[in-house]
Amino acid sequence: xxxxxxxxLRGNREPQNGRQDVDVKDGLVGVVLWSLSAARLxxxxxxxxxxQGGILAFHRVCRPTRHEFGSSNGLAVSPDKxxxxxxxxxxxxxxxxxxxxxxxxxxxxxxMIGQKFVALTFDDGFVDNYxxxxxxxxxxxxxxxxxxxxxxxxxxxxxxxxxxxxxxALNDALEFPWEGKEFRLETRTIKQKRAIYRTVASxxxxxxxxxxxEICTALGSRYGLDFIKLGDTYTLTPAMIAxxxxxxxxxxxxxxVHHASLAHLDSAEARWEIVEGKxxxxxxxxxxxxxxxxxxxxxxxxxxxEVSICREIGFRTAVTTESNTIFGSDRDRLLALPRLxxxxxxxxxxxxxxxxxxxxxxxxxxxxxxxxxRTL
Length: 376
Ligand SMILES: [Zn+2]
Prior knowledge:
By secondary structure, this protein is of the alpha/beta class.
């Protein structure tokens, strides 16, 4: 692994045009999305593929600052856009459901006829769930579900993505230990910063929590950054959670203790992440937590083992990142429900229609455009 890492990084030592490259690619995907919409594909697809509605997956509702070149890339939707999305759905007559209501509806087929629905879900417990998303949802009277990573909320585990991003943004090189070796990676140009972020983040995404903690501790002490304290900038506090819970508009779900990729853990570790995450989340919320979101949520990070654990400990629903709308038949897989990830990179395109009509999920299933599978 280490050799391929070095080779990968060598290939990225080019001058300052990284931002441009990324923007061009995103721009091309945007053009494709506009073209699909102009060809009226959503209108054609909707009858067969829109189902009864969908579970929309968001992360942050904010405008990323200039340095947030890594973790917020695609994860952030602006507050104005978020409000516009909700208003569009209200104008079109969608009902907004909490995850509990969604489970009720799926289990009572007679209620599946008529109004289409959406459920708004937010992963990772970012602070703007409270500062930006919650006020808009409250204003419009729509429910939201927020999946908490208890280690982040309790400030016991570093929000490594934000720390890594800040360290790379502020330094021309990154030195750290990994699997017993020392690495020194140049992070001078924007292109290098993006490439190094992507490379390191992809390793950390499948690493065990102890290894993540080790690298964050090393980076923190070398570069003078308190990774745990970054949680104060990015993550919900217990007081915010209590206020949201008391509103009756927000349903909280669990998202693991450390946001670990469960399939990369052994059985006992995976079970502990799910069981202890539920327990810690319940302590934070002050109520039973019946809903779960698998960290990362793809088939490489969860499987039948994780679904069984969720069933055994009494979760009512669990969501993945498999891209699809919701059909009545999904009542048979309440613990592996698909979602529609709203990618903030394309918030200025007809993304909402392309998702809710089932067009993009269908394209992904056909593998027509490989880029869709990776980026949407
Ligand atoms: Zn997550």
